[in-house]
Amino acid sequence: RTLVIGLTGGIGSGKSTVAEGFARLGVPVIDADLIAREVVEPGQPGLAAVARAFGAEIIGADGRLDRKRLRERVFAEPAERRRLEALLHPLIRAEMRRRIAACAAPYCLLVVPLLLEGGQSDLVQRILVVDVPEALQVERVRQRDGDTTERVRAILSAQLPRDERLARADDIIVNDRELTDLEADIRRLHRYYLELAANRRD
Ligand code: ATP
């Protein structure tokens, strides 16, 4: 059985950057955001289920999920949003479990932005948090997405506060320096996780 490390962190903290670093070392990476998209690809049962629940008009002329239309349907409608989540969540979770089960490496990384907010932390044995000071987080997201400080702050305030996230972490990777420093931290954690995986008793 593979050791599963859950990778999480606030918006723009560097989850993708860190995951890429582990992937370069040969660590299998399972990405929750990618899976969430894949379960509603054309031909997947998830797309048919969403169409049954929200109407065929949420499928565009190209046969793909019309995300904009779906967002409009659930935006400002908490009950509708919950209905959508209740439908997709089990599909995403089942796919995550399948990929974990298929993983032959000593350990794998499960990247879940809302790992601590949502109900997926039982899938992982350890939690790795990517941490950055908020000012840097805002600056990087502004640079990357061309967002305003206010918009980024609004997203931040909807996420778990930094101190609560850190309190739940088993391991913390601080991403406030150069990428080469980050890579050194990733290599160190990699060695540590290989050791943990080799000495596992559970
Ligand atoms: P999201 O939550 O939005 O998915 P994320 O946590 O995956 O974001 P990344 O996309 O990895 O974060 O990083 C956010 C931005 O900051 C990217 O543009 C990335 O290139 C940049 N970045 C990440 N780490 C560093 C670093 N150490 N130095 C400079 N820039 C960085």
Summarize, please.
This is Dephospho-CoA kinase. One of its GO terms (biological process) is coenzyme A biosynthetic process. This protein is of the alpha/beta class and 202 residues long.
Widest sheet: strand order? Answer: 2-3-1-4-5
The mean pLDDT is 94
Pattern of helices and strands: EHEHHHHEEHHHEH
Q: Taking Cα atoms only, what radius of gyration do you get, to the nearest Å?
A: 18 Å
Query: Tally of extended strands?
Result: 5
CATH architecture call of the largest domain: 3-Layer(aba) Sandwich
> Could you give me the name of the CATH homologous superfamily of the largest domain?
P-loop containing nucleotide triphosphate hydrolases
CATH fold-level name of the largest domain: Rossmann fold
Uncertain spans, ≥5 residues at pLDDT below 50? none
Molecules bound to protein:
adenosine-5'-triphosphate
Report on this structure.
- The structure is a single chain.
- This protein is α/β, with parallel strands linked by helices and 202 residues long.
- It folds into 2 domains: 1-28 and 106-202, Rossmann fold (3-Layer(aba) Sandwich), CATH 3.40.50; 32-102, no CATH class.
- 53% of the residues lie in helices and 12% in strands.
- It has 9 helices and 5 strands.
- The chain has helices at 15-24, 32-38, 45-54, 67-74, 78-101, 134-145, 149-158, 162-167, 179-198; strands at 3-8, 29-31, 107-111, 126-131, 171-174.
- A 5-stranded parallel beta sheet has the order 2-3-1-4-5, with helices on both faces.
- Helix 3 (45-54) runs antiparallel to helix 5 (78-101).
- The longest helix is centred in the middle third of the chain and has 24 residues, at 78-101.
- The chain is globular.
- The relative contact order is 0.21.
- The model has no long low-confidence stretch (mean pLDDT 94).
- GO terms for molecular function: ATP binding; dephospho-CoA kinase activity.
- Belongs to the CoaE family.
- ATP binds at residues 12-17.
- Catalyzes the phosphorylation of the 3'-hydroxyl group of dephosphocoenzyme A to form coenzyme A.
- It comes from Thioalbus denitrificans.
